[in-house]
Write a structure and sequence with these properties.
Blueprint lengths: L2 H29 L4 H15 L1
Helix pairs in contact: 1-2
């Protein structure tokens, strides 16, 4: 029974990571990579808060 909230948190984390990765790829493709490092650093700052 204790694994259900943990599984839900894991799925939310995976979904957020997928969304961030998708956003980075879209921006990197549209801006030719100029803003991608900035987005990656912001995502890196958000991950400890999510985890």
């Amino acid at each position: 029974m204790h694994t259900i909230p943990h599984l839900k948190t894991g799925l939310i984390t995976v979904a957020l990571l997928a969304g961030v990765a998708l956003a980075v790829f879209i921006v990197a493709d549209g801006q030719q990579g100029r803003q991608a490092p900035m987005l990656l650093s912001q995502a890196g700052m958000l991950l400890p808060a999510v985890g």
